[in-house]
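Notes continue from the previous slide.

Worked example: a multi-chain complex. Inputs as given:
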Amino acid sequence: MKKLDYKGYFFIAPFFAIFLVFNIYPVLLTFYYTFTSYEGYGTPEFIGLTNYIRIFSDTYFYEAFFNTWKIWGLNFALQLGIALLLAALFSDLRFKIKGLGFFRAIFYLPNLITISSVAILFSIMLDWRHGSVNMFLQQIGIISEPINWLNQPVTAQVSVALILTWMWFGYTFIVLMAGVSGIPGELYEAALIDGANRWQTFVHITLPLLKPIMLYVMITSLIGGLQLFDLPMLITDGLGAPEGSLNTMVLYLYNQAFRYNNYGYAATIAYALFLITVIFSAITFKSMYRKSVKE
Amino acid sequence: MKKRFGLYFMLVLMLLISAACSSDTNANSGSDSKDDVLKVWSFTDELKEPIKTFEERNGVKVELTIVPIADYPTKLKPVLESGVGAPDVFTGEIAFLKQWTDRNYWENLSEEPYNADQLSDDYVDYVFDLGKDSEGNVKALSWQTTPGGIFYRRSIANEVLGTDDPNEVGEMMSSWDGVFEVGEKMKEKGYSLFPDEGAIRWFSKGEDPQPWVNENDELIMTDAKLNYFDHAKKLRDKEYTAFAPEWSPSWIESMNGPIGIDKDGEEGEQEATGETEVFSYALPTWGLHSVLKINAEDTAGDWGVTNGPSPYFWGGTWLGIYSGSKNKDLAWDFVKMMTHEEEFLTDWAKETGDVLSYLPVTEKIKDDFSEPFLDGQNNYTFFLEQAQKIESGIVTKYDQQIDTLLGAQVLEYVDGKKTKEEAVNEFYKQVKNAYPELKMPQ
């Protein structure tokens, strides 16, 4: 008879100890805080479900929710569109574009700049009266008067979405290219021989076979996007100006916790955010997965 | 046998690890209990020089940790709450000072052996008062006072107002009507009175000095604060400002000379794009050294400082001893040197031009100051006079955030995005959202 050997547990214990202390414990403690009113010092005061009742009637939270979706949605659509287009170009046998490695590096470059530098760079470029964007657009005659980009809700949201696109399309492109290179070349050759044009090749070969990769890109981007915080925080006043249009969920959480010292309510927002992320990831996964199974 | 070996091996390993850990903690607590290392935390490097002096004098080592101000409260809070790795002395900025005085983070300096209450007559009132908790115990002291004024360009004053004398200019700017009159004269000659509308917020705050929140947790909205909306709107509508918000690149550029401006920018009917020069800036004591001198090199010597419609102060750093410190004697020595030691403070003031709040020293040195940047004006006496006029006891822990929220709504009203009523109501809503415990007016 073989005796069970427990020594293995010793070896995995360090990981679980660290995981318990730095992951599980804070997560559970945060959950406890959602039932309290806590200023960040002293003892939290138990207030039951008050925070949960508040979050359901909090218009600022709803505003933050929709802002986050608008900004992420536009950014993701553009990012994926550009990345797909580039992936199609680079994978096309007829174009035979050289220097994939070079372009990959160039496209990925914006992602390497720290977000604070990006925010400063763009807030200077988008400056109403002195910014190069307005000067350029006026010079080539597209607009006759300077646009105050960061002072109007729609243009501010679009600006942030575009900056995010600029930062992230390279990453998406690289991931998609990895997916494209996994598609057997024979398929393209066969299509070429069968006389399929570029569009047909793209729609019937590249797209379906890229689906799993696109699912991956979408879910990671969604999780990252729902946590959108740094750029809106840095590019205007950190409160979501203009008119609360850059108030994203995590920015709202941050301000409730670290600006107004409402740690209990901020913890509730964190859990709401967690729930939202789980729900939407599940929906995305389900819909994409079901489609690919059907086909 | 093999199994047993494995077990022994594990045990030895764990012993080693725990030994390593405990020797680590030993080393730490060892340096804690040493009396000659003083740990100081602050958010600027201005304590560097004083610390050098302190080290030389006492033959001790001081460890200064500088945390950028944006992270300072967040970094300091857990350290003070847990007491692990806490400093012996730490500074507090006006933005979070009032949140801390009522905690037991700072040692009570009103008690033995510090007896700081005896010093109360030696300090500028409002400065000393701000270091107290709600029960009147002194928790922190400050060496400086940071009243504000209006820094203006002498050449423009001469051209438009016919004088550059600070007293006469101050007389003209001492009421809101006067401010707008000067604004009109400036506009006629193509100058801008202020860089932007935010410049007047301090005067609105100082006009009818009342705390934002009273002891019943009620938000107090004064007429003066409501008038801030109208005054700011008037400045914009009458085109007395240059669209150069504080800290923006154009704000800094405007200190050095004319900046491009297109006053009708947003509204259409474009007028000829022109240039304007900004006449004056509302800045406090430190604005001279940290803002103007650095940025206005071309216009150095062409500046004067005078009063606005009401006295105000902006910023300031307080210093106290951590209540859990094991090094309180040395910590108090440092606080003493920094806040009320005549010899050191005299040198410090002469070297840096910092306006001190410790009156025994300022009385002696104030008449000797002559600032070349301000064409020889004695800004020291001016600021000390302003400091004495500041009402004490009106700062609450909410001020910093509520002021920010108010400013944002004033701007939306000035930009024409909201009516005054909408902006005021949105302001109440946001304050309530930030601080649910507060009761709004109406």
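Summary box: The domain at 156-311+397-434 of chain B is CATH 3.40.190.10 (D-Maltodextrin-Binding Protein; domain 2). The mean pLDDT of chain B is 87.
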